[in-house]
Amino acid sequence: MTGKPLSKPRQSLEQYIRSIGRHYLHAVIVMTLLIAATYLTMLVALDRHSLQQKISFLTSNQFIRFQQLANQTRALMRASADPNLPDYIIGPMSDDIHRAIGDIRAISTELHALDRSIGGNLLERLNPRDEISVELRHELNVRLEDFLERAARIADTSAEDRRQRYSFWGPIDFAVAADSMLMRQFADLIRHAHDRSDVSIDNAKRISTGLLALIAATVVLASTFLFSPLLKKLRNEQRRTMAFEQQLTILAHTDALTGLNNRSSFNAALGDLFGELERTGAVFSMLLVDLDRFKSINDGLGHPAGDAVLCHVASALQETLRASDFIARLGGDEFAVLLPGIGDASALESVAERAIEAIAAAIPFEGRGLQVSASIGGAIVPDHASDEAGLMRIVDLALYTAKAGRNTMVIFDEAALARRLEENQLSLALVLAADRNEFVVHYQPKVDLMTGTHLGFEALVRWQHPELGLLPPGRFLPLMEGTQLIRGMTRAVIAAVGRDLKTWKNAGLVPGPVSVNLPEVLLVGGEGYEFFAATVRENRLEWQDFAVEITEDVFLNRSADQILATVARFREHGLSISLDDFGTGFASLVHLRDFPFDELKIDRSFVDGIGRDARSEQIIRAMIHLAQSLGKHCVAEGIETDQQRRFLMEAGCDVGQGYHFARPEPVALAGKRLPQQAAAIHRRTDSGPATAPLRRIARR
Ligand code: C2E
Ligand code: MG
Ligand code: MG
C-alpha cells in the first residue's frame, strides 16, 4: 500500500517520456524536411538570380557591342566617303565590324541557352510563362539580325558602293533605322527581365517565409504539446520527490507514534543549546519525564492502550509547555523537554508540576478512563551541568529520585546525588540481604472495628540493614523492581511468618490468619505456591493460617491465566485472597466480577480523606457497597483516628487495620497482643457483634 503511490507516477512518467521520444522523432523529421525545403528554395532562388544576372550582363554586353557596331559601321561609311583613304585603313575597320557581328551573334546563342536554363528553374515554373520577354527577345533578335545583315553588307561591299550610299543616305539611316529602335528594345528587355527577377525573388521570399513559419509552428507545437507537459510532469515528479524526501527527513527526526521529536533530533537540539550557551551565555533547563507503571498498562491492557497513554502524554506536554520549548520522546515511556531561557529552579519546578498535573488527567480509552502518572527529573544548565553527558547523568539521577516517590518531580540538587549514591550502595547490599537473613517481618493486626478484637495480622517486611538500621519497604522495594531479588525476599518473609506462626501456636496463642503480600512474579509461576506449601509442611501448619494480599495490577498482567490458576489453588486450600490497595489501580467491574478473591482492602489514601474530603467518603461507601453486593468482605487500612473507625463501621465495613489500633510490630511485641486459645474459644462461643468477623476469618 505504502510503496504504490510513489512507484506509480514514476512508471507513467517513464511511459510518457518514451511516447514523447516517438513524437519528438516525428517532429525532428518534419523540421529537417522543412529546413531542407527552405535550403532548396534558397538555392533555386539564388540559381535563378545568378542566371538572371548572367542574362542581364550578356544583354547589356550585347547592347554595348551593338552600339560599338553601329558606331563602327557609321565610321566606315564616313571613311568611305573620302576616296583618297587608303585600303589599309578601311580594311581593319570592316574586320572590326565582322568581329562585332560575330560577338553579337555568339552572345545571342548564349542568351538563347540561358533563356532555356532559366525556363527550367523551379521557381520560374511557378510563374506564368514569360510571353512578353519571349516576344521582346524575338522582336529584338529579328531586328538585330536585320541590322547585323545590313552592317555585314556595308562592311562587305566595295568602297565605291559605300561612297554612293553615304552620299545618298548619309550616316543617319543607321542611327534612325537601327539605333533608336533597337536601343529601346534593349532597354525594354533589360527592364522586363529585372521586373521578372523581382517577382521570382518575391516568390522565393514567400516560400521561405512559409517554410520558416512551418518550422516555427513545429517548434511551438512540439514545445506546447510535448515538452511543456513533460516539463510539468518533471516538475510534479520533482515536487513529489522533494515532498518524499521532506517526509523522510521528518520521519528521521520525529517519533512516529506521538509526532514529537525523536532522540536523534533531541541530541541535535541539546547540542545547539550548549553551543548557544557557549556563544551567548543563554541558560536553559531540561526535564526528563518517565511514566509510572507504564509497563503494567502496556502488558495488561495491550499496546493500543499503551499507545493511547503515550499520545496523551505527548499532547499534555505540548499543551503545558511553550511553543519555544523542545519536546521529544526518547523511547518507551521516556520523554524529554528542553526549556530555553529557564535558569532558575522555582520556575522549572512550576513547569514540571503543571506537566505532572496535565499528564494525570484521565485518558479515555475504549469507553473507560485510564489513569497514568509521571515522575519528572529536572536540571538547569549551567548551574548543574556543563556538558551533554553530564546533564543527562544529572537529570537521570533526579528522575530516579522522583521515581521512588512516583507522581512527583525532583529538580536536581546535591542531596539527590547523595541519596542516589546511598541507594546504589543499598542496591549492592540488598543482593546479600536474603542470604544474610537481614529481612525481618513486622506484624500489624487486623481488628474488629466495633470491639477492637484481634482477627489476624498483615506481615510487613523490613530490612535490618547492618549500618542503616531498620529500613521500611519503601526504601528498598523500588530497588528490587525488575530484579529476581524479590523472590528471595518473599521466600524469607513466608518462612519467617511460618516460623512465627508455629511459635505462637505452640505457645497456645491464636494469631488468626497472617496475610502475606505476594508479588505478581510469584503468582505467575508455581513458585509462590511452593513457598507456602513448603512452609506449611515444615512447620506443620494449616493453609488457613495464611492469607494472601495481591494488588489490582495482577489484572493487567499478561499471564492472568496462570495467576488465576495459582489463586484457585490457594483458595482450594482455604487460603483467603485480598485485593490490596483497592481503588488505586486498574480493576474494572468485569475483573471484580470474574476474579476469585475474598476481600477488598480499601486503600489508606481514601481512609485518609474521611472527615476532610466528601468525595473520598462517597468512594468508600461505594466500595463497601460494591464489596457487599459481590459477596466479598471489606477491610479498611490506614485507620489512624477514631472518627475514621466510626465512619467505616457505620458505612458497613467491620474489619480494619491502622496505627489507631497498632503499628506494625516485631514478632515479640505482636505476640503480646494475641489472645490465648481458651479465651478465643470463649469469645467465639460468647457470640455478640464482635464474633462475626472472627468467624469469617476462622471459616477461611
Ligand atoms: P500495604 O500492603 O498496603 O501495607 C500497608 C502499609 O500501610 C504498610 O506500610 C503499613 O505500615 C502502612 N500502614 C498501616 N497502617 C497505617 C496507618 O494507620 N497510617 C499509615 N500512614 N500507614 C499505615 P509498609 O510496611 O511501609 O509497607 C508498604 C508497602 O510495602 C505495603 O503496602 C506493601 O505493598 C509493601 N510490602 C510490605 N511488606 C511486603 C512484603 O513482604 N512483600 C511484598 N511484596 N511487599 C511488601
Ligand atoms: Mg498489603
Ligand atoms: Mg495496602
From TrEMBL:
<protein>
    <submittedName>
        <fullName>Putative signaling protein</fullName>
    </submittedName>
</protein>
<dbReference type="GO" id="GO:0003824">
    <property type="term" value="F:catalytic activity"/>
</dbReference>
<dbReference type="InterPro" id="IPR029787">
    <property type="entry name" value="Nucleotide_cyclase"/>
</dbReference>
<dbReference type="Pfam" id="PF00563">
    <property type="entry name" value="EAL"/>
</dbReference>
<dbReference type="InterPro" id="IPR000160">
    <property type="entry name" value="GGDEF_dom"/>
</dbReference>
<feature type="domain" description="GGDEF">
    <location>
        <begin position="282"/>
        <end position="414"/>
    </location>
</feature>
<feature type="transmembrane region" description="Helical">
    <location>
        <begin position="211"/>
        <end position="231"/>
    </location>
</feature>
<dbReference type="InterPro" id="IPR052155">
    <property type="entry name" value="Biofilm_reg_signaling"/>
</dbReference>
<feature type="domain" description="EAL">
    <location>
        <begin position="423"/>
        <end position="678"/>
    </location>
</feature>
<keyword id="KW-0472">Membrane</keyword>
<feature type="transmembrane region" description="Helical">
    <location>
        <begin position="24"/>
        <end position="46"/>
    </location>
</feature>
<dbReference type="InterPro" id="IPR043128">
    <property type="entry name" value="Rev_trsase/Diguanyl_cyclase"/>
</dbReference>
<dbReference type="InterPro" id="IPR035919">
    <property type="entry name" value="EAL_sf"/>
</dbReference>
<dbReference type="InterPro" id="IPR001633">
    <property type="entry name" value="EAL_dom"/>
</dbReference>
<feature type="region of interest" description="Disordered">
    <location>
        <begin position="679"/>
        <end position="700"/>
    </location>
</feature>
<keyword id="KW-1133">Transmembrane helix</keyword>
<dbReference type="Pfam" id="PF00990">
    <property type="entry name" value="GGDEF"/>
</dbReference>
<keyword id="KW-0812">Transmembrane</keyword>
